[in-house]
Amino acid sequence: MKNFFSVADVDNLSDLVEEALAIKANPNTEESLGKHKVLGLVFLNPSLRTRLSTQKAAMNLGMNVMVMNMDKDGWALETQDGVVMNGTTVEHIREAAAVMGEYCDILGLRSFPSLKDREADYNEDLFNKFIKFCGVPVVSLESATRHPLQSLTDLITITEYKQVDRPKVVLAWAPHVKALPQAVPNSFAEWMVKAQEQNLLDFTIAHPPGYELAEEFTTGATITHDLNDALSEADFVYVKNWSSYKEYGEVYPVSENWMMDNEKLKQTNDAKVMHCLPVRRDLELSAEILDGPNSLVIKEASNRVWAAQVVLKRILERLNKNI
Ligand code: CP
C-alpha cells in the first residue's frame, strides 16, 4: 500500500479486515516496525477519533508522531497555481507540503469540502496537490469526498459483530441542523458495494428524495426512499446525515421523521446501530438507542485504532523494503 485514500488502494478487503482483527488480538507484536519513523498528522478541520486513534496506532508500531493543526496554528494556505499572493494566503501548498515531507516519513491529512464548489471538492484538488508535493506516502484522515479509515473501521466492526454470513447492512439518512459533507456516506457506500461484490454482505441505502449520493459511490447498492422498507430484516443500520449532492450542499426540509429510534428498530432483525460520531443525540439518533444494547458506536470508535494500525503497518512494510 503506497497511499490510503479510497477502497481502490486495497487489493483484498477480507485480508485487510482479517489482519486488522489479528492486530486487535495482539496489538504490540510490531512495535519496532516504525522505529525512527515519523508520522505527521495535518488537520485543516477538527477531530477527536481520527487524531487520537491514528496516534495510538502509530505508537503501537513504535513511530514518533507530530500533529499540526493547520487551521489554527499554520499559515493560511494558497492552493491555486498562478496567483499573485497579495491577499490573505501566506504560504503555497507547494512549499508547505514539500517541507512537511522533509520532516515526516508518512503524512496524514484531513481536509473537509467547501460544500460550495462541487467540481473543486470532487476533484480532490487540495488532496492531490498535497500527495504530489509532499513526496511521502499520504493517509487520508478524511478528504472532501471520502473517509477511508472510518469505512475500513466500519467493515471491521460489521465483520466482528455479524451473526449471519451475509448480513443486511442499511445506510440510513438522518436529520441534522447543519449542511454536512457526503464524505462519510460516499466512502461507506463504496466500501460496502465492494464488500457486497465479494458476497460479504447485502447493502441498501435509504434517504429522502433529493439526497441522492453520487453514482460513482453507490452503483450496485439497493437505493430506496422508504426507510421502513429498508429497515425490514436489517442486521446493521448505519445512521448518518448528509447534505444534497445534486443541489450541492443544500439542506431540504424532510417531512417524515427519519431519526432512528427504538420503535423503528423493531422492524429490523434486532439490528446493531452504527454511527461514525460525533452524533447529535435525539436529532440524528435517539438517546435510547445510543444508551441501549443495540448501539455499536463506542466499539466502532474503538476499532478506529486497528484500522489505522493495519494501514500504517502496510505502508511501513513497503517503506522498509524501499519500494
Ligand atoms: N468519526 C470521525 O472521524 O471522528 P472525528 O471527526 O472526531 O475524527
Label the overall shape: globular
Mean pLDDT: 97
Structural category: alpha/beta
In the residues, how many domains can be counted?
Answer: 2
CATH class descriptor name of the largest domain:
Alpha Beta
What topology does this entry show?
Elements: H1 13-25, E1 38-43, H2 49-60, E2 64-69, H3 70-73, E3 77-78, E4 91-92, H4 93-103, E5 106-110, H5 118-122, H6 125-134, E6 138-140, H7 148-161, E7 168-173, H8 183-197, E8 202-206, H9 215-218, E9 222-224, H10 227-231, E10 236-240, H11 262-265, E11 272-274, H12 287-290, H13 297-302, H14 304-320
Parallel strand pairs: 1-2, 1-5, 3-4, 5-6, 7-8, 7-10, 8-9, 10-11
Helix pairs in contact: 1-7, 1-14, 2-14, 4-6, 7-8, 7-14
The structure holds phosphoric acid mono(formamide)ester.
Please give a structural write-up.
This protein folds into two domains: 7-147 and 303-321, Aspartate/ornithine carbamoyltransferase (Rossmann fold, 3-Layer(aba) Sandwich), CATH 3.40.50; 150-301, Aspartate/ornithine carbamoyltransferase (Rossmann fold, 3-Layer(aba) Sandwich), CATH 3.40.50.1370. By secondary structure, the protein is α/β, with parallel strands linked by helices. The longest helix is centred in the last third of the chain and has 17 residues, at 304-320. 38% of the residues lie in helices and 14% in strands. The N and C termini lie close together (10 Å). It has a five-stranded parallel β-sheet. One of its GO terms (molecular function) is ornithine carbamoyltransferase activity.
Which key terms come to mind for this protein?
Rossmann fold, 11 strands, binds phosphoric acid mono(formamide)ester, four-stranded parallel β-sheet, 14 helices, 2 domains, alpha/beta, 323 residues
